[in-house]
Amino acid sequence: MESEQRRLLIRFEGEDLGHGRDRQGRLQHLVLPGLTLTLHEGERVALLGQSGSGKSTLLAELRARLGRHAAWCPQHHGLVPQLAVYHNVFMGRLPEHSTLAGLWNLVRPLSRPWREVGELCALLGLEGLERRPVGQLSGGQRQRVAIGRALYQGRDLFLGDEPVASVDPHQALRLLALIDSRHATSVVALHQRELALSHFDRVWGLRDGHLVIDAPAATLTLAELDALYPDADEPAGAFGAPAAAGMPSPEALPCARGRP
Ligand SMILES: Nc1ncnc2c1ncn2[C@@H]1O[C@H](COP(=O)(O)OP(=O)(O)OP(=O)(O)O)[C@@H](O)[C@H]1O
User: Ligand 1 in contact with 21 (CB < 6 A)?
Assistant: First the structure.
């Protein structure tokens, strides 16, 4: 189905995104000036760009606009290390429960959420770890807990800020497939360019404060994605840095290719 026929979820038209506002409402730190893009229902978007290019800034704005429709998996996980895996995942639905139910469940897990979180943990390869404090897990296990908490929110749409940065390529694919199985629409920041091409419908690429790629993944090449990372000087690879030689200039980047 062409995205023209899909429901429009987000439209930015020449909008300035950044951080902090003065008394007149002007942005104090402009990151993405004049941003224009759309997000349609059913799209799976990979968000690429080197560190500091504005991925988190854009995700924060999407999150603010989508509100309770979006599940959120933050870059630094936002887990409570002293609490068990079960409690951290359960926190995904904390806003839906009364304070009393939430507190009671912290002391003595209720049977239904215990079962639901257990099923989710099994899918995430965390079975048997439900009672373990998150502070005692590996980086990859913590990342899966953070994904579990986002999945447990049960929203229509998934927003993730590098949710597969700490796992191996095989696990990254499995986790993205799990995210897809529960959300029709997703926007995922990541640095794995081959994964962006193989797994996602669409790529948004940020460079120098601008959206320089907004195109279907099927129309893009690895070299075009490599050009988003001008500071890198190693050969491209699935999880490596991009090639310096043969990079297309930013002007040659396919910003509007296939834009809906
Ligand atoms: N709260 C903030 N206040 C002011 N400036 C900020 C704030 N958060 C981020 N920035 C700045 O905005 C710019 C974009 O940062 P952002 O975190 O969006 O980049 P990113 O692409 O997500 O980077 P990374 O891949 O390292 O997470 C950077 O220059 C950063 O210093």
Answer: no
